[in-house]
Each structure stands twice: as structure tokens, then as C-alpha cells.
Specification:
Layout: E1 4-5, E2 7-8, E3 15-21, H1 25-37, E4 41-45, H2 48-57, E5 62-66, E6 68-69, E7 72-73, H3 75-83, E8 90-94, H4 99-108, E9 112-115, H5 120-135, E10 143-146, E11 149-152, E12 157-160, E13 163-165, H6 169-180, H7 188-195, H8 206-219, E14 227-230, E15 234-237
Parallel strand pairs: 3-4, 3-5, 5-8, 8-9
Antiparallel strand pairs: 1-4, 2-3, 6-7, 10-11, 11-12, 12-13, 14-15
């Protein structure tokens, strides 16, 4: 069986390429087989350095990265991807399951964090939720603006003051929602439901961690901040 098999997205019939970075041979075999049975194309890398090279050079739609690779923290792959301007969604798998571990993963730039051991059905559901958001077509010629911040939805390009802003897929979704509700206070519950499709509190700082990264991306280096925390209420993007 070849290491790489192309697949198609079951709900849109679009070609989908998933990169799995996992050094546990048996676990990788199980995940690869399940993803392919679900109709997805999968490329598997069995070590951190190889995974790092493919993450930053390959045209994958989704990355699934084990955190505890042999002598290699998988978060290095996530950080490198973001530093190279990659906005593709990343799902991190890890046996490190404390709140601090999950927050560290989210702050490194991953879009979701699944603790081992896990049911494959949950991994598949999370992966497909990330893919749906990333592959959802934007309305043509749709541009959102707030002050000097601009989102071009068809190209998924974000700029502030003419300078490109690099965001992960989830950060992009957050910013789009906030810009569509500019000037309005949005709650954590609203963001959990609309961005993550979660109708319960996951008991981790999921929203806060992503908003912290988003704030750094769009406000750092500028004279005035656009993203604000409203204590006890939520968050607001003020133009």
C-alpha cells in the first residue's frame, strides 16, 4: 500500500489531502485506515523532522500531529507552519491532557487538541469539522472592513494597514465572526457555538487562548487596539 493515497471530501466532492505525523506505527496504521475508509486522502510521516518538512512544503488541507514524537515536540511543527504563513487547520493528538497542556497547544497555533486515548469516531468528527470550516466557499467579492483591518473572504487574506496578517483557520473564523458583529459584545458561548460548533463548555480556555493569539496578530505593532475584552461579558471588535 503506498504511503500517499488521494481522497475526496465526502460532503463537497472536493479533493482533500490530510497529513498525519505520528511515530507510533500501530496507532498511525489505525488512523490512516480509518481516514481512508471515510473517503479522505492521507499522507503519513513517521517522525518529527520529516513531518516538519512536509507540513511547511506540502499542499495539505488538514494536519493531524502527535505531540509526543520521538525526541521532538509536535508543537514545533505547528509553530513553524504558522511562522511560514500557513493557515491550514491543525489537530494535535497528545497524551498530555492537563488544561495547561491544551492551552499551550492552542497558543502554539493548533485549531483543536484531542487527548489520548480517544475514540476514532471523535477524531474523525473533529477532523471533518475543521475541514468543513476550511473548505467552506466564501461569498464572491466579499470583503469585511473595520478601521484599517480588512478580510477578503474569497482569498482568505487578512491585512491591517496594508500589512499581511497570518492567521490559523480557527483564528480566521473568529476574526470573521467578530468583524461581522463589529461594535457588538459577543460572549464566549456565542463563539463556542458559532466557531467550534460546541454547545457545552469544554472546561478549557479554548476561546481565550485563540483570542490571545488573534489579538497579538492584529493589534501588535499598531497605535490602537481593535480587539477588546469586556470584563464579565465577552469580547468586542471596535473599529
Amino acid at each position: 500500500r503506498p504511503d500517499w493515497i488521494a481522497g475526496r471530501c465526502p460532503w463537497s466532492n472536493a479533493a482533500v489531502n490530510i497529513l498525519l505525523v505520528e511515530d507510533d506505527t500501530e496507532a498511525a496504521r489505525h488512523v490512516v485506515a480509518g481516514l481512508r475508509e471515510a473517503g479522505h486522502g492521507v499522507e503519513h510521516c513517521g517522525d518529527g523532522p520529516h513531518g516538519l518538512r512536509r507540513a511547511t512544503t506540502g499542499g495539505h488541507d488538514l494536519l493531524i500531529v502527535d505531540r509526543l514524537l520521538s525526541g521532538f515536540d509536535g508543537l514545533r511543527i505547528v509553530s513553524a507552519l504558522r511562522q511560514h504563513g500557513g493557515h491550514r487547520p491543525v489537530l494535535v493528538l497528545s497524551a498530555l491532557g492537563t488544561a495547561e497542556d491544551r492551552v499551550a497547544g492552542l497558543r502554539a497555533g493548533c485549531d483543536d487538541y484531542l487527548v489520548k486515548p480517544f475514540a476514532f469516531a471523535e477524531l474523525l468528527a473533529r477532523a471533518e469539522a475543521l475541514l468543513r470550516r476550511a473548505l467552506m466557499p466564501a461569498a464572491p467579492h466579499s470583503v469585511l472592513r473595520a478601521s484599517d483591518l480588512e478580510i477578503d473572504l474569497p482569498s482568505r487574506c487578512v491585512t491591517r494597514g496594508g500589512r499581511a496578517v497570518q492567521l490559523s483557520a480557527t483564528e480566521f473564523q473568529l476574526l470573521e465572526f467578530l468583524m461581522r458583529h463589529a461594535g457588538q459584545v459577543v460572549t464566549r458561548r456565542m463563539l463556542l457555538e458559532r466557531v467550534w460548533n460546541l454547545h457545552f463548555d469544554p472546561q478549557v480556555n479554548l476561546v481565550d487562548a485563540h483570542l490571545d493569539r488573534l489579538r497579538q496578530a492584529i493589534d501588535r505593532g499598531f497605535d490602537h487596539s481593535l480587539l477588546h475584552t469586556v470584563r464579565g461579558a465577552g469580547y468586542v471588535l471596535r473599529a
